[in-house]
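Hi everyone,

Forwarding the result from last night's run.
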Amino acid sequence: MSLCANCLTLTPDTAGVPGHPALRIVDTQRRRIPRSVTVTLSTFRCSDCGAIWRYREAKDDGPQGWALLATEAANEGR
């Protein structure tokens, strides 16, 4: 699992932190939690290193911002 230099600059779990130019959006989901807020989950893939990132945005106490899910290299051999 080897992240590119741009992915290494992302700060996980911090709201409002921008991504980088090689991130390409692959999915967006909006979930309405009953009696709570709407949560937006956007999934991105880095075109340089294959890393899969999710950006969570919501006005609640849950984790916000970027989270690394996987990389293409980690999924090889499966």
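The longest strand covers residues 23-32.

Cheers,
N.
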